[in-house]
Amino acid sequence: MMDERSSKRPARLGSFRAKFILVVGGAVLFDLLVSGGLALWNVQRLSRDATLEVGQGLEAASQEYIRTYADSTAAQVSLLLRQVHNDVSTLAGVLQAQIDDPERNSDVGAAIARTSPGSVSLTYDQKANWSQNAPGSVSVVSVWSYLLGEDHNPRPDVQTDIQTSAVLDLVAPSLLQHGASKLQMYYIGSKERPIFRTAPYTDQAQTFDRLYPGHNEANFWDFFFPGLYESWQGWAKDMKTRPVADDITQTAPYTDAITGKLIVSFFQPLWTADRKDVAGTAGADITLDQLAQTVENVKVAQSGFGFLAMSDGNVVAINSTGEKTLGLRSASDASGSGVTGLERSLKGSSQPAIAKLALDRELGIQHLLLQQEGNEVPYIIIVKKLPATNLWSSGPVRQEAMSLGVVVPEREIQASLYAAQAKISEATNRIVIYQILAILMSLLIVAIAVIAASKRITSGISALADAAKRIQAKDYSVRVAITSKDEVGEAGEAFNRMAEQISYHTENLEQLVEERTAQIEDAKEEISTLNAQLQRENRRLGTELAVAERIQLMVLPLHQELEEFQALEIAAYMRPAEEVGGDYYDVLKSGNRLKIGIGDVTGHGLESGVLMLMVQSVARALQEAGNTDAVKFLTDLNSALFKNIVRTKIDKHLTLAFLDYDGKEMILSGQHEEVVVVRANGEVERIDTMDLGIPIGLEADISAFIKTREISFETGDLILLHTDGVTEAENDAGELFGIERLCREALRLKDQSAEKVVAGIIATLMLFIGSQKIYDDITLLAVRHR
Amino acid sequence: MEISDENFRVWAEKNEVYFDGVFRLAGPDAYAPIYSLISGLLHEGHKQVTFNLTGLEFLNSSGINLLAKLTIEARKMGDLLLVVKGTSQYPWQAKSLPNLKKLHPLVDLRLA
Predict the structure, then answer these.
(1) Looking at beta carbons, which residues of chain B come within 8 Å of A651?
(2) Are A295 and A320 in contact, with CB atoms under 8 Å apart?
(3) What would the pLDDT profile of B47-71 be if each residue is shown by its tens digit?
(4) Which of A182, A543, A591, A756 has its CA 20 to 30 A from that of A121?
(5) Between residues A551 and A520, the one the model is more confident about
(6) Count of CB pairs separated by less than 8 Å, A with B
(7) Which helix (H) or strand (E) holds A497?
(8) Distance of residue B94 Cα from the nearest chain A Cα, in angstroms
(9) Domain total for chain B?
C-alpha cells in the first residue's frame, strides 16, 4: 500500500527524484545536443563541400560536353557538306570529261540518244514557249525560249548540249541514290546555252513558270544567279581570284523552284576544254532540312538547340524552338530577282544579346542572358566556325564560313548539377531530419528510462520518507515494501524493524512501564537486601576490626607495668592505623629479667590481631618457662607460630626483635627495624638488626639465622624501638619521616624523660604527617637508663 | 601478562618479572593474582628467573611476605636460579631483600 502511494508521488521540484532526473537528463541532453550538433554541422559541411565539388566537376564536364557536342555537330555538318561536294564533284568530273573529249562526248551522247531517246527528244510547249522532254526519262531537260530556233526546236548547238548532258542520266541516279541525301542533281549549260537538265524527272519548266514568271525570257544565269557566272569567268582567267581555293560554290538558302522547299545549291563550274571560260555547271541541291536536321538534331539537355548561320548572321538552320528562343524574325527576300532567299538574321534578333553576337571568330563558351516572358534567363552559347566555302548570295561570289551555334539554357546544363545539388541537399536534409529524429527518439528513450530508473531508485527512498512522515504523525503501523536488495532495501528493512520496535514500544508502553516498575521494585528490594547484607557485613567487619583492635590493645602492657622497673624508665606509644595494623610491643618481667619485644605482623585486620595475640602468648609462655637463651627463645617462638600459621592458614608473618636486660647487659636479638641508641654524651647509634634474625612464621626452623648482640647501656643512655609506621609515615608531599629525622628528634629530646621523649617525637611525627593518611600502625618505645 | 593499577605495575617478559611503583595492597588475598602470575613463571621450566625490583619504590609488609613465599617456592624447585635485582635507592629494599637470601641462600641478590 505504501509503495503505491509513494509511486504516485509527483517528482516535486527539489525532490531527490527531480534532482536525479535533472542531473541525468541534463547530462544526456547535453551529450545528445553536442553530439547531434556536431553531427549536423559535419553533415552540413560535407553537403556544402560535396555540392561545391560536384558543381565544379559537373560544370567542367557540362562545358566539355557542349564543346565536344558543338565540335561533333560541326564535323557532321562539314561531313554532310563534303559529301555533297564530293557528289557534285563526281558529276562535274564526268561532265567535264565529256567537255574535254568532244568526240567521246558525241559518241556517248549518240549512244544515250539511241538507247534513251526520251532523254534527248524534247517537245515544244506552245503555250509556255519552252521545250522539255517527256516524263518517263531519268532526267528532265528544259530548254528555254531563247534557246529554241524558229522551228521551236533547240538550236543545233543546244541540241548537242542536250545530248552531251545526257551522260548525267548515267551518273546522277546512282549519285542520288548513294552518298549524301540530295534533292536533285543537275547540269546547267553555259551562259550561251543554259539548258537545265535535272535528275530525277520533275515538271521542271512548269514549276519555274509558276514560281519565277519571266524566267523564260531572261538568261537563266542572269535571272536566277546574277553575278555568279561572271565570278566563275573571273576564276577561269585567274584561279587565284577564287575566294576559297575550291571550285565548289554554294548558294545561300532559297526556295527551290521545283520542289518549293528551302534548299541550298552546290555548284561546280565546268570549264571549257581550254579552261579559258565557263562551260556550265554541275549542281546538286540539298534541302535546308537536311542541314537543318543535323543542326536541329542538336539536343543538349532538354531545350538546347543548334543553329547554322551564315557569316552575315543569317540563320540557315534552326528548329522552331531555337528560332523563338533566339528571337529571329523571318523576312522574304524582297529583291524579286533570282531564287527567293531567306532572311532570318541574328542581327535582326529581338534579343539584344543575340543581335550583338559575334560570328566572325570563335569565342568558346559564352554566357548570355536572353529575355523570356519578361525574365532574363541565362544561356550558354558556343559558336563553331565551319570550313570556309565560296558562296553566292547575290552578286559576285565571296568567301563564306558558316557558323554552327549550340545554345543551351544554363538552367538545363546546370540541371544535373542542380539535380546533384538537390540530391545532396535532399540527402543532407534527410540526414538532418533523421539525426533530429534520432536525437528526439534518444531523448524520449532516455527520458523514459531516467524517469523509470528514478522512479525505481527513488521509490524506495520516497517510500521511506513517506513512512517516516507517517511515523511522525504517530501512525506506527506503517511498513515499507522491500523491493530491492540494495542499500535502500537494507534501509527499508532497518526502518521496518525500527517501526516494529517503535510500534511495540508504543503499544506496550504501559505494560512496559508496569514491567519496568515491577523490575525496579524487584531491583529495589534486591538492593535493600544487598544493602542489609552489606550493612551486616560492614557491621561484621566493623566488629572484626573492633575485636582486632581490642585484642591488640588488650594484650599491651599496662601503664603501671612499665613503671615497675627501678633501673629503667620505659614509655610506649601505639596508634593503630585506620584499618588496624599488626604492630606488637611488650614488656615482660620475670624475676629480675626484663624482656622487651617489638614486632610488626604483615597485613591488617583480625588475623593480624590474632597472630599478634599468639606471639604475645607464646612469648609470655616461654618467658614464664624460664627460657633465658635469646636465640632459643626466638627459635621456639617461631617454631610454635609457624605450626599455628600452617594450621590456621593465616598467610602472614612478622618481624620480631627482643631486648633482654638482666640489670647489667642489654642483649638484642631478632630481625626488626633499626634500634636507635642515644648516648648520654649525645652520640647516636643506629643498630641494624638484619643479621640478627629472620621474619617469624616463614620457616619452620630459624635457629640458624638468629644472632644476638649486646648493647652497652649506661646511665643516661636512651634506646628507641619503633615500627616502620614511624619511619615510613608520609607527609603531604609524599616524603617519608625517615630514620634520620627520628634520630634527630631523639637527640633533641635525649635529656628528657622517656615519656616526654615519646610524646615529643610523636608530636613532631603527627605534625609531619599533617592531614596525610596514616597507612600503618605507629609504635614507638623509649627505654632510658635511670 | 600484566597486573597493574594506578600506583603499580607488575609484568613478566620471558623469564624476568618487573615490579614498578608503589605496592600497598591490603593483604595476601590482594596479592594472590601477582603470586599466581609469578609462581606460574617459576614453574615454566626456566633455568633462571629474575625478579627486577629496580623500579619498585615501596612494598608493604604483605608484599614482602609475597616475595618471601616466592623465594621459598623457588628454593623448592631446586635447580632454578633466582636472581633478584634491587636498588639501594629505596631503603626498604636494603632492609628487606637480604632476608630472601637467608630464606634461599642460592638467590643471586644484586643490589645496585
Answers:
(1) 27-28, 65
(2) no
(3) 999 999 999 998 887 888 889 889 9
(4) A182
(5) A520
(6) 57
(7) helix A487-507
(8) 9
(9) 1
The single-letter DSSP state of residue A387 is: P
- Interface contact flag, B62 A603, Cβ < 8 Å: yes
Asked if ipTM goes beyond 0.95, one says no
Q: Is residue A115 part of a domain?
A: no
pTM of the predicted model as reported, rounded to 2 decimal places: 0.45
Which of A185, A136, A144, A135 has its CA nearest to residue A165?
A185
> pLDDT by residue (tens digit) across A521-573?
898 888 888 888 888 878 777 777 778 788 878 888 888 888 777 788 999 99
How far is the alpha carbon of B73 from chain A, nearest alpha carbon, in Å?
Answer: 12
* C-alpha cell of residue A371: 529575355
Min distance B8 CA to chain A CA atoms (Å): 16
Nearest Cα of chain B lies from the Cα of A761 at a distance, in angstroms, of: 21
Mapped onto helix, strand or coil, the DSSP state of residue B36 is helix
Asked if A605 lies within 8 A of B102 by C-beta distance, the reply is no
Q: Do A690 and B68 touch (CB under 8 A)?
A: no
Cβ-based contacts of A698 with chain B (< 8 Å): 65, 68-69, 72, 103
Structure confidence at residue A337 (pLDDT) = 39
> Taking Cα atoms as reference points, which of A190, A202, A130 lies closest to residue A164?
A190
Q: How many domains does chain A contain in total? A: 1
| CATH at residue A591 | 3.60.40.10
Report, as an integer, the average pLDDT of B89-111: 87
Interface of B with A (CB under 8 A): 24, 26-28, 58, 60-62, 64-65, 68-69, 72, 91-92, 95, 98-99, 102-103
Residue A776 backbone dihedrals phi, psi, to 5 degrees: -130, 160
Gap from A697 CA to chain B (nearest CA, Å): 10
Contacts of A12 by beta carbon, 8 Å cutoff, 6+ apart: A18
- pLDDT above 90 coverage of chain A, percent: 15
Which of the residues B7, B36, B65 would you substitute to probe the A interface, choosing the one with the greatest number of A C-beta atoms within 10 Å?
B65
Closest chain A residue to the Cα of B27, Cα to Cα: A603
A8 occurs within a structural domain: no
Q: Is the pLDDT assigned to residue A171 strictly greater than 90?
A: no
Cis status of the peptide bond prior to A173, with omega within 30 of 0: no
Nearest CB to A698 within list B26, B72, B91: B72
Q: Is residue A33 part of a domain?
A: no
For A286-295, A429-438, A627-636, which range has the lowest pLDDT when averaged over its residues?
Answer: A286-295
Q: Is A233 among the domain residues?
A: no
In the block, which residue shows the cell 514557249?
A: A129
Q: Which domain holds residue A662?
A: 554-785
Task: Copy the grid coordinates of residue A508.
Answer: 506496550
The domain spanning residue B12 has which CATH number?
3.30.750.24
User: Of residues A597 and A7, which shows the higher confidence score?
Assistant: A597
Tell me which residue range forms the domain holding B24: 1-109
Residue A38, φ and ψ in degrees, nearest 5? -60, -45
